[in-house]
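Support reply, case 0932

Customer input (verbatim):
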Amino acid sequence: MILIQELIKHFVLGIVSIFIIHNAMADDTKIRNFLNEIREVKEEYSKDSFEYAIPNKFILTVATAETGNMEFDGASTAKKANNFFGIHPSEGDDFLPTKGGSKLTKYETPKDSIRAFINLMKTGSAYEGVRKAINEDKPVEEMFNAMGSYAEKSDYTQFLNTVFKTRVNDIINPILPKRKPIDIQMNGLQ
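Our regenerated output:
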């Protein structure tokens, strides 16, 4: 009887593990696919241009954070608009209204959204610190820190750093061991 219970327990644990691994891999697949889109868009720019110099991991982290791991939970308007960065329209831009009354720029394709984000980083007055960090080849964390002035979330820079450490870095650098940063491990102990 005990042997049968043990077999059932291991069978159930195996099924649950497969479900969890499948969901984690599904998230990673969406993020990996978006990374490929970023790479394709970046090839449109000269290799010595500012646009090309923007790190893929920076673009991917912002998109992953803004879309909730590419799931768009609670953000059906952003998904319909192909708006992966939460970009609001300028005068004359196509847009979709959100349920909350905001407007999001509407893009034909995800690549159009990537191009718009790259252009925003290049020309937006709020992103001078990001441009400086990119031009000085600073670590991506310093680029995130320069994003705080525009953000609606007060902890946005920390949020970007967490998304980078827990989601994007493993995809960009798959050879590194899969280990959560110590500050995230410690949060679970409190």
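We compared this against your earlier run and they match. Two observations from our side: Strands lie at 95-97, 103-105. The chain has a mean pLDDT of 85. Please reopen the case if you see a mismatch on your end.
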